[in-house]
Structures are given as structure tokens and as C-alpha cells.
Amino acid sequence: MHGAGPDAIEAALGRARPRESPVQAALHRYVEGVIEVDRTWPVDLARMPADAPSRERRDRAVREVETFLTRTTDEGLLRRGLPPGFAASIVPLLVHQVARNLPRLTAAQAADVAVHALLNGIGAVPARSPLPQPRSG
CA-to-CA distance for 31 and 37, rounded, in angstroms? Predict the structure, then answer.
């Protein structure tokens, strides 16, 4: 991960203070920071250079976010029982869509939309059916 975009991602993660801040505050700060980064330097972590230092830096940031998302689940902000890695795969997609499709909103306003959608969904009425359970056997 070379350059200003990756540096900005790491800075946004640092400002969110995902290990010590209350989870909802950290989630909003992280999302807001990544929206700002995405609007300035669109960065796809999956397409970052494969050299060892870049890969290590990218992997460290991904692990930090995954650890934080586990904390958000452990503290009851995200629903338990989701497939492993689901939240970690949805958050960047949601943030990217909000960053790109709501350009008239400030990063803070866009983060409000993204975090609300993440935590509450977009349905007008809460779903009544349980999550599908993985098949065994």
C-alpha cells in the first residue's frame, strides 16, 4: 500500500480509535473517514500491489477492521449469527456505494446514512423471519 490513499485509510482507522472508543462512535468515525478517502482516492484493498511491504500493510488494516467488527458484534451493535466474514465484506461495499452515490452529502452526513443502513437495514418494517441457518451434513 503505497501513496496518499493508503496512508489516508490508515489515518482514518487511527482516528476512529476502534479498540478504545465506544463502538458506535468508532464505527461512525471509521465510516466517515473512509468515505472521505473513497471520495478523494478510490482505493480497492484487494487490488493493492502484491509486494511484501504493501501486502503486510494492507493485511494489517484489514485485520484491524475485522477485529473491530468482531467487537461491534460482541458488544451487540451488529447481529450475531451472520456468516463468518459477512460484516467485513458488506461494510466496504456499503461505504463505497454511499460515498459514490450521495456526493451532495458531507462525509459526516453520508456516514449517518451508511451506519443507519448497516445497523437498521433499509426495510420500512423489521423482517419477521429468522436468518437462514447453515445446512449441516
Answer: 10
